[in-house]
Amino acid sequence: MTLSNKKANRGDHIDRISDLPCNVIDGILKHLTIHELVCTSLLSRKWRYVWNTVSQLVFCEDFFSRFEDLDDPGPEINRTITDVLFQHNGPIYKFTLDIPLESNFLISTEYLNKWILFLSRRGIKKLLLFNYGTLSDKVPSNVFSCQELTHFWFCGFNLSVHPNFCGLKSLLVLYLLNNTYEFGAIETLLSGCPLLKELTIEILQDIKSICLEKAKNLIELRLMVNHERVSGLIKSLPKIQRLTLESYVSGDKTFYADIISPSQLISLKYMKLEGVNLAERGELLYIVRVLKSASNLVELVIQSYSDNCEQEPYQLEELGCNSCCFSQLQTVNINVGSDNFKHAMSLMRFILANSSSLKTLAFKVHFGDKLDPVALLSISRDLLLMERASQRARIEFTHRE
User: Alpha-carbon dihedral of residues 289, 294, 298, 303, nearest 10 degrees?
Assistant: First the structure.
């Protein structure tokens, strides 16, 4: 064997992975599943304990699928997650537990509380708990011991907050999805989060009102409504800059006008409305009232796919909407279904005529299974002829089947 061959042969046994910089190794490990992560201990002696220093752990569908063949997977799942946590050596900054929908993977409340207590002592900053199978479970009480928590997502629980709750003083982002709420629980929780900047709430039940007065630093709110009784839902809204409203209530009428009064939106810079019905007089007027109240609004996004649009579109002049000036509005994005485009055109005509700083109006129509060439030609012609208060305004019209 030649000298060069000997060198090449020795090179085949070099552990190049272990010689990578620590930050590169950490980046690789973060993208592995729990099973793959633990299996790295078999690579070599150097890697035997590398897995248990990773700063984020994710238990999701891939993890749970390995227990599908067991008659009663709960105890084995509880034991496995406990073993992984208690063998971990170092800080855990992010922890995700995502129990799959329609599964029999029941997590013991006792174990869940134990895990979160453990995480609270390891500097947990981002905690994601998705419990789709057991909606009646209460949020684990030890969550409120995680004083370094900055991001908290929880789904599928019943939220109750102990009267002695001392707050989550570092929390910046909070997601409340698919939960039920005891009376006053949301306000009590928010009152203990003085730094909170971003809040997402999904409403599934009859809640009289939510007072956000104490969320002084809140700048972004996303509200998803799946319940009909929402009159006066949001009270004392702080000076938020970004607002997203989504309504999934069945029937012809949505309730945006009842959720948040336009008078509370004076500092708004971005607004997105999903599920709005532009054929409803009240919904159309609500958008106009928001535009008039939110004098700092820069971007407006509207998604409207209602198929109950047999009536002729309202003309804004008929509704008492006199000329005004939206001096800060620069971007408008409107997506509609094929049965709704005439109502959107009426709104766009009003916006174009009153937005002196407008740069882009993007209009997308979803025609479904049948593309209508006549409608396309009519829309293109009408858009070109619309009066524009801004000489820089550019209209981008797109469509898809």
Answer: -40
CA 365 to chain centre: 25
Output the CA–CA distances (angstroms, integers) from residue 140 to 114, 125, 128, 184, in the order listed.
9, 16, 12, 18
CA distance 224 to 246: 5
| Span between the terminal Cα atoms of the chain, in Å | 67
pLDDT tier at 301, thresholds 50, 70, 90 = very high
- Rounded distance, CA 259 to CA 231, Å? 6
- Give the CA angle between residues 218, 198, 95 to the nearest 5°: 140
CA distances from 87 to 83, 167, 299 (A): 6, 30, 49
Give the confidence band of 270 by pLDDT, cuts at 50, 70, 90: very high
Confirm if 138 and 157 have CB atoms less than 8 A apart: yes
Phi, psi of 114 (to 5 degrees): -65, -45
Closest CA to 333 of 307, 308, 314, 359: 359
Q: Residue 331: which of 375, 392, 241, 278 has the closest Cα?
A: 392
Q: What angle do CA 258, 259, 260 make, to 5 degrees?
A: 105
Stated pTM of the model: 0.85
Q: How far is CA 209 from CA 48, 187, 213, in A?
A: 54, 10, 12
Nearest Cα to 249, choosing from 283, 272, 217, 288? 283
What does the CA dihedral 335, 276, 181, 214 come to, rounded to 10 degrees? Answer: 90
* Tally of CB atoms within 10 A around 164: 6
Lowest mean pLDDT among 159-168, 170-179, 356-365: 159-168
- Interatomic CA distance for residues 138 and 135, integer angstroms: 8
Side chain identity, residue 193: C
Give the distance, in angstroms, between the CA of residue 155 and the centroid of all CA atoms in the same chain: 12
pLDDT of residue 27: 61
